[in-house]
């Protein structure tokens, strides 16, 4: 089978690798460079922690396990420690922990003493409560993309950069994909993994897959992400608190976000100096050993968010030649999607993906657009 994969972010790279494992002849078309879209500005937290509804939770939980089945220097299965200080956050955390326990999701209520053992440099606010999610982790996105694209290339896949797709047309018995400049690629099937550009790319094939527009300011589709200079602070895992989320990023650097500030994020506008300084001040308050850290990199990340907030995965045309994938949980889902999507192209229906077909946007079953999801107490 000849397959064109559109997009070389973490999802496109995973799908390309999954298809080559099946013996497909794969060409990956990337408009820019691999990982240049949302993958490059992701918090890269691997989890199913607060993923609803139930089908979305089960999809993400299976994906967490898929990361554990694909270990390597890009994945850090060190767990996630959550600290709640405000009354509202404590109530929501307890409700979520109870729900996750009943669903069989690994979670532990831990004492302040145990939290200090896990992260000795972290401030322990008076009255704080903690939960530890041992199965979760984080990845270095570009290293994961390198691993997946490398596997695909080793199996014969071709990765073409600077290839912006401008046409997707039926060409019996398959499909033809045109790119800017006049090149064309013939295939038996095409898989679109174009992230936040999915709506426009799918439309080339006559499919309707609405995406929330990052060109509009707002915290749903845009968010601040700061990577610090190297600091002498001990941090081993993903941390979420009332006002800040952070994780290690290698060589002493930290990746930091403050979701409550994302309402000020505007696409195409640099991170304001006061936002940058606010995030760094919050970091010092949470992790005093990081005092003096500077922002080595501060960006406005643009999230890939389907119209109802849930993953899209399935054939977008009656002839089953154009398969579309789009998701907000790209880093978490990538290894699983690589396996499941490849299976579907080879005729194996995935029970995990059955609830996420693109047809829901035309048959009236899609839900309403998501509301901003932020942790209780974050400001």
UniProtKB/TrEMBL annotation:
Pfam family, one: DAO
Region (Disordered): 359-379
Name recorded for this polypeptide: FAD-binding oxidoreductase
InterPro entries, alphabetized: FAD-dep_OxRdtase, FAD/NAD-bd_sf
Lineage, uppermost ranks: Bacteria, Bacillati, Actinomycetota, Actinomycetes, Streptosporangiales
Taxonomic superkingdom: Bacteria
Swiss-Prot/TrEMBL keywords: Oxidoreductase
Domain (FAD dependent oxidoreductase): residue spans on this chain: 2-342
């Amino acid at each position: 089978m000849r397959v064109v994969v559109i997009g070389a972010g973490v999802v496109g790279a995973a799908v390309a690798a999954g298809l080559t494992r099946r013996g497909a002849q794969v060409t990956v078309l990337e408009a820019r460079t691999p990982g240049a879209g949302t993958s490059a500005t992701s918090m890269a937290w691997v989890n199913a922690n607060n993923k609803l509804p139930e089908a979305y939770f089960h999809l993400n939980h299976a994906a967490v396990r898929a990361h554990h089945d694909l270990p390597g220097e890009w994945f850090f299965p060190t767990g996630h420690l959550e600290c709640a200080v405000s009354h509202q956050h404590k109530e929501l955390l307890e409700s979520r922990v109870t729900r996750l326990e009943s669903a069989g999701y690994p979670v532990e209520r831990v004492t302040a003493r145990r939290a200090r053992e896990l992260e000795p440099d972290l401030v322990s606010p008076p009255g704080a409560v903690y939960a530890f999610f041992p199965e979760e982790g984080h990845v270095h996105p570009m290293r994961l993309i390198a691993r997946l694209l490398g596997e695909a290339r080793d199996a014969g896949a071709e990765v073409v950069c600077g290839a912006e797709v401008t046409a997707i047309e039926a060409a019996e018995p398959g499909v033809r994909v045109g790119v800017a400049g006049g090149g064309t690629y013939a295939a038996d099937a095409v898989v679109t993994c174009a992230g936040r550009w999915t709506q426009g790319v799918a439309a080339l094939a006559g499919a309707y897959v609405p995406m929330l527009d990052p060109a509009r300011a707002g915290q749903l589709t845009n968010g601040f992400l700061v990577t610090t200079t190297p600091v002498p602070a001990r941090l081993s895992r993903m941390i979420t608190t009332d006002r800040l989320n952070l994780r290690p990023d290698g060589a002493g650097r930290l990746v930091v976000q403050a979701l409550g500030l994302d309402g000020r994020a505007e696409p195409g506008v640099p991170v304001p100096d006061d936002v940058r300084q606010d995030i760094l001040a919050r970091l010092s308050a949470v992790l005093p050993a990081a005092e003096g850290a500077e922002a080595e990199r501060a960006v406005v990340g643009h999230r890939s968010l389907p119209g109802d907030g849930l993953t899209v995965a399935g054939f977008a045309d009656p002839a089953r030649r154009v398969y579309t994938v789009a998701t907000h949980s790209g880093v978490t889902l990538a290894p699983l999607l690589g396996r499941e999507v490849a299976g579907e192209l080879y005729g194996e229906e995935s029970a995990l993906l059955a609830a996420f077909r693109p047809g829901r946007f035309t048959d009236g079953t899609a839900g309403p657009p998501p509301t901003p999801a932020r942790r209780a107490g974050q400001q």
